[in-house]
Design a protein that fits this description.
Structural class: mainly alpha
Order of helices and strands: HHHHHHHHHHHHHHH
Number of strands: 0
Radius of gyration: 32 Å
Distance between the termini: 65 Å
Mean pLDDT: 75
Low-confidence stretches: 45-51, 395-403
Length: about 400
């Protein structure tokens, strides 16, 4: 008894110490996780069980170089238009003292409530651009951007290392497990890596399509801030559960600065683009067998509170990993424990019907009409089901000694 208590206490203390160590090195753990996700994203070209040769490693490095160059180019192009939209929006907010509401909403209770609870554009701009708000915000953004850039460089090199030394890394951590569990662990690891890479590629492609379609559509509709609205909508779309609502708020508010008609058209166009991505694009790229957006949203809130911007970036892949592990370790095992149809012995319905008929005949007097009609219906159903029952009946094992 004392030995069992000591073993339980040792296990609990070891678990707590491991959690404390993970918390102390949480940034390192996040960097490693992001690097593994990035490596899984670029993995399909070189997915092989054999050792990577020089050509495969060259292709991997070329992939990362091209991906990094394309990312920097897109950030430069989009950032150029974003700066112009921000400047134009600042001038508009500082000079406008009213919101432009639709004619049907003007002069009523809605306008009174709107003017009471929502500050005018110039007051909102003055409140945002005060010294107490601007300087801490700029300092925080600068520190965040610097941390993200330095972390991105570390993640990039780690990802290249994981991609080149994939087999060595797998052999290392699989050697820590018992021999009978290595095959199962390898299968789970490869499944998570494959699905996680597909999910990341799907989200990246959807974001690029959202920025492109929303930006072109807003520009054709005559919006003065197409780049700002497109980037905001694409980023908000990545947030689970509440992403679609957040993506519609900015077009609605910015449209009210110029004309109500533009606000309505931009909101409808945003809804149409996001619906098309959800219905047609996402299922063709990647679809979880059991997607749980509520779990993703809860993980996002927790990790955003603990890690800030990096936690927001990592939370969707963490949710995907949790859902894949649940499917592989719990759902599939529970489904495997359900006996197959060929293992289930079918009930002899004819014998049950004969027993029921004998019980009815033993009833004194004439049976109620409902009993007679039920038996007639039962006989009809058994006659229709007899061919199917004959097919699923277990076949007798032939006796080789029978003449």
């Amino acid at each position: 008894m004392t030995k069992q208590i000591a073993m339980i206490a040792t296990a609990i203390m070891t678990t707590l110490l491991a959690l404390v160590a993970l918390w102390q090195f949480r940034i390192v753990v996040l960097y490693v996780l992001i690097s593994l996700v990035l490596a899984a994203t670029f993995r399909p070209v070189s997915r092989s069980e054999t050792r990577h040769n020089l050509g495969t490693r060259s292709i991997l490095v070329l992939q990362y170089v091209v991906g990094f160059a394309v990312t920097v180019l897109l950030i430069f192009i989009v950032g150029k238009y974003l700066v112009g939209d921000f400047q134009q929006l600042a001038q508009k907010l500082s000079a406008q003292s009213i919101w432009t509401l639709p004619p049907r909403l003007q002069g009523g209770m809605f306008q009174q409530l709107f003017e009471k609870w929502v500050p005018t554009p110039d007051k909102l701009f003055a409140a945002v651009t005060t010294r107490d708000v601007v300087l801490p915000t700029i300092l925080g953004i600068t520190q965040s951007v610097g941390g993200v850039l330095s972390g991105f460089i570390v993640i990039l090199f780690l990802s290249v290392y994981w991609s080149i030394n994939q087999n060595h890394f797998e052999r290392l951590w699989l050697s820590l497990l018992p021999a009978e569990r290595r095959k199962r662990a390898r299968y789970i690891w490869r499944t998570i890596e494959h699905d996680l890479g597909a999910y990341t590629r799907s989200e990246l492609i959807q974001s690029l399509l959202a920025v492109l379609l929303l930006g072109i559509g807003y520009w054709l509709l005559g919006s003065p801030y197409p780049a700002l609205m497109a980037v905001t909508g694409a980023v908000a779309w990545l947030i689970p559960v509440a992403g679609a609502v957040l993506a519609l708020i900015l077009p609605l508010l910015l449209g009210l600065l110029s004309s109500p008609q533009l606000s309505v058209w931009t909101v409808l166009y945003t809804l149409a683009v996001l619906s098309a991505l959800q219905v047609w694009v996402e299922p063709r790229l990647f679809k979880l067998k059991s997607d749980n957006p509520i779990l993703t949203f809860v993980i996002l809130l927790a990790m955003a509170n603990a890690f800030g911007l990096i936690g927001i970036i990592v939370s969707p892949p963490v949710s995907v990993i949790c859902q894949i592990l649940w499917r592989l370790l719990v759902s599939d095992r529970m489904a495997a424990e359900i006996p197959a149809p060929e293992d289930v012995q079918p009930i002899d319905l004819k014998e049950q019907r004969a027993r029921l008929q004998d019980a009815i005949e033993q009833i004194e007097g004439t049976p109620p009409p409902i009993v007679a009609s039920t038996m007639e219906r039962l006989n009809e159903l058994l006659d229709k089901a007899e061919p199917i029952l004959r097919e699923i009946q277990p076949k007798e094992t032939p006796d080789i000694f029978r003449s």
